[in-house]
Amino acid sequence: MALTTDHSSPMNRQRSGFARSLDSGFVWGTAAVAIAVGLLLAVIALQVGEDALPAIQKFGLGFLVSSRWSVIDGEFGALTQIYGTIVTSLIALFLAVPIGVGIAIFLSEDFLPPRIKQPIVFLVELLAAIPSVVYGIWGIFVLIPILRPFGIWLHETLGWIPLFATAPAGPGIYAAGLVLAIMILPIIAAISRDAMVAVPAELRQAAYGLGATRWETIFQILLPAGFSGIAGGVMLALGRAMGETMAVTMLIGNANTIDSFSILSQGSTVASLLANQFAEAGGLQISALMYAALVLFALTLVVNILAEIVVRRFSLKL
Amino acid sequence: MTSRLQSARQTDSIFRTEDLNIYYGNFLAVRDLSIDIAKNSITAFIGPSGCGKSTVLRCFNRLNDLIKSFHIEGKIYYHDQDLYASEVDPVEVRRQVGMVFQKPNPFPKSIYDNIAFGPRLLGYKGDMDELVEQSLKQAALWDDVKDKLKAFGTDLSGGQQQRLCIARAVAVQPDVILMDEPCSALDPISTLKVEDLLQELKEKYTILIVTHNMQQASRASDYTAFFNVEANSKGQRTGYVVEYERTEAIFQSPKQQATQEYVSGRFG
Amino acid sequence: MTAPDFATARRPGSLNRKPTSPRTLFASAMTVLSIFFTLLALIPLVAVLAYVLANGLSRLDVAAFTQLPPAPGLGGGGFGNALLGTLLTVAIAAVISIPFGVVAAIYLSEFGRDTRLADWVNFFTNVLSGVPSIVIGAFAYAVVVLTTGTFSAVAGGVALAILMLPTIVRTAAEALESVPNDFRQASIGLGATRLQTTLKIVFPAAVPAILTGIMLAIARAAGETAPVLFTASFSQYWNTTIWQPTATLSRLVFSFATAPYPGQQELAWTASLVLVALVLVTSILARLVTQRRHK
């Protein structure tokens, strides 16, 4: 049977100009929305920056090194809060990094059968799902009463160390740091676990084949090979800790001065400052708060971009 | 049941399996394996894909232990010791029975550190530089890399990487080296280099090599075991040894029809 | 089977376990330590859940869901207006963020894959997800509260929408990317346009996974406090419009937990229980849905 060509069949109809432009319009439309989503970051920075402008003009970089925050005098400096942000985040990292990486090792290697391992992985992830404000209320009514005797003991036995120089008053920098550690733990554990799991099985077998024990393989092969992934996870966690607001606000005591370097003293972070003052702020105070928000934004931006670069390099390499 | 050929005892055996069945869960991967492996010689495992030859190889250094569902019936003796006895430490086994894998797998470390990895684990107290040089020489890689020992092992060419892996295995001075298709990822020239290397290495080590390449088996090995695979009614494919003899015998005067067909390239 | 037979060679060294060797001891110690760390991490989870349950159950009654908050110092009452406010702000956030997020994901997955533009959008979206939620609150305050002159559900919704956006973009893009390429090729091979292929073939196949991502994003947003703190702000009363200060559950937990009145503290615990139940149920549901799909 011979094939005939029938030019009148609907299959051969030219696509109409409208259909074609509809199609490319669709593609360009989605691209435009994607660009808009990408640009949102810049829009946020510009808007917050614009509202911060009066305070930036008035206080300049002195804002970063002055610890005087006085609504009545119209004098604003965020050193206390920047200090508090950094110290609470460092405490959180100090506690969460070893534990998080330890969990990642335990849950990435074959210590447990998958049937038991998967639920534990899920439970650790759930730690990240609990709302910040719930950690806050739990911290106020449960954690601080438990921590207080421990803080008093620290102060009485190790009070000569500047870190423990003040008597704990209940809420304080240490309590905020501890809750932050709990909150960033799942991030570190999850990303470190991904990094370890991504190490090729061949390397693991090569090490075992040479007579390495499981832990020698972990320390000498898997951790170095997964290092940049783990580092990226730690950076992301640091960014999250610096910006975390509610639990910190509820537990840090919200003192607007640096009295000592003691972690048992009360303090505040940039985020807790914003949380406490924005709702009732007016005039220059709004601008100063926007300036503080911009500082926090810049801090977390740097940390997050570094994390993103580290994580990308790592995912390209493996 | 299988009988062992009481041929002239030209040499000593290093591994001996007795009625070995290998399982992954309920799946029987290899059945009824009873073979002896000769010391200071090269024994090749050949056969079609899925016949279990790599699985058997990995029993000899207990690397299969890493797979949870793996278990065996029967016995594997290494020298006179039951390799799967409960008091045996697999880590110790792997120190004495080294392995080179199908895909070159150098660690993302320097060439030097790749070689030194094993000896350091074992607390080697001697001159490490000397040991690294010796090992690289044994793997015929010294001249290629002596000026760049700090370079990353992963930056070498594929053939060099595989010889690095051989040097790494040799550095812990094992008793046996298992090779799982060590040349399948290499070009013909690198393959020949590795094959030459095997002849030198067998002076000091016992070598078991799994290969898809029949020329390689006939060129390089002293003994050859031909594996085949058959499917049962449930479609599970179980491997078994058809014929195990001196390599010349396998290739020139095979006793079994299947061996004859496989070595002449009619299937597989 | 025939086989060469050899006398057994002498064995070089012992293969037996040495339980007291430093290598073995180190390995055992590390194993114990890592188990300890894992248990340590699960303590806060169990403790938070237990306390929220224990303290929240006492006021888990009908009044809690239907009545207005009690006056300071009084008992009883409820968080009906805050529950409604949470639904309202989250709904506004969803209406804003879902279309933008899904359409952007369509570009990233269908048309922009491996282009530099998509790389940049991915990069900025990831960075956006790391911007502190309080800063997003400050942005929404500047854009909505300062321009309209009032705290409102809309302001809270805008803040939450920005917060949800990266999650929606990422999960939707992943969902679309996991649709097998065969589908696209088959559709294009039949002469379908890209628009038709995307809307009729790829998108429907990805809908369950996209919905899972949206569900997770909504649950997380409902628990967020910092973005609504000074955008939706708070109110003791029912909403009549979306342009007035609006209470939310999370903000109510913050205000009442830090208030010195037991009646309000009880309500804060109960509201916490509701929030935790919401995120737990959605997380578990999402997990079950994903698991089934992978099987």
UniProtKB/TrEMBL annotation, chain A:
Spans through the membrane: 25-46, 82-108, 120-147, 173-196, 217-238, 288-311
UniProt-listed GO biological process terms: phosphate ion transport
Entry-linked Gene3D superfamilies: MetI-like
Subcellular localization(s) per the UniProt record: Cell membrane
Top-level taxonomic group: Bacteria
A single cellular component GO annotation: plasma membrane
Entries under Pfam families matching the protein: BPD_transp_1
Keywords assigned by UniProt, alphabetized: Cell membrane, Membrane, Phosphate transport, Transmembrane, Transmembrane helix, Transport
GO terms of molecular function: phosphate transmembrane transporter activity
Domain ABC transmembrane type-1: 82-307
Membrane-related topology note: Multi-pass membrane protein
Family: Belongs to the binding-protein-dependent transport system permease family. CysTW subfamily.
Function: Part of the binding-protein-dependent transport system for phosphate; probably responsible for the translocation of the substrate across the membrane.
PANTHER family reported for this sequence: PHOSPHATE TRANSPORT SYSTEM PERMEASE PROTEIN PST, PHOSPHATE TRANSPORT SYSTEM PERMEASE PROTEIN PSTC
Protein name according to UniProt: Phosphate transport system permease protein
Origin species: Myxacorys almedinensis A
Lineage: Bacteria, Bacillati, Cyanobacteriota, Cyanophyceae, Leptolyngbyales
Encoding gene (name): pstC
UniProtKB/TrEMBL annotation, chain B:
Single GO MF annotation: phosphate transmembrane transporter activity
Domain (ABC transporter) ranges: 15-254
InterPro entries: AAA+_ATPase, ABC_transporter-like_ATP-bd, ABC_transporter-like_CS, P-loop_NTPase, PstB-like
Keywords, sorted A to Z: ATP-binding, Nucleotide-binding, Transport
Entries under CDD domains matching the protein: ABC_PstB_phosphate_transporter (cd03260)
Keyword Nucleotide-binding assigned: yes
Statement: the UniProt record of this protein carries the keyword Ribonucleoprotein: no
Name of the protein this chain belongs to: Phosphate ABC transporter ATP-binding protein
Record lineage: Bacteria, Bacillati, Cyanobacteriota, Cyanophyceae, Leptolyngbyales
Automatic annotation (TrEMBL), chain C:
PROSITE patterns for the chain: ABC_TM1 (PS50928)
GO BP, sorted A to Z: phosphate ion transmembrane transport
Subcellular location: Cell membrane
Annotated ABC transmembrane type-1 domain residues: 83-286
MF GO annotations: phosphate transmembrane transporter activity
Keyword annotations from UniProtKB, A to Z: Cell membrane, Membrane, Phosphate transport, Transmembrane, Transmembrane helix, Transport
InterPro entries linked: MetI-like (IPR000515), MetI-like_sf (IPR035906), Phosphate_PstA (IPR005672), Phosphate_transprt_permease (IPR051408)
Pfam families in the cross-refs: BPD_transp_1
GO cellular component: plasma membrane
Membrane listed as a keyword: yes
Gene3D superfamilies xrefs: MetI-like
Spans through the membrane: 25-53, 82-108, 120-144, 150-169, 201-222, 267-289
Topological relation to the membrane, as annotated: Multi-pass membrane protein
Main location: membrane
PANTHER family: PHOSPHATE TRANSPORT SYSTEM PERMEASE PROTEIN PSTA
Family that this chain belongs to: Belongs to the binding-protein-dependent transport system permease family. CysTW subfamily.
Protein name per UniProt: Phosphate transport system permease protein PstA
Annotated source species: Myxacorys almedinensis A
Gene (name only): pstA
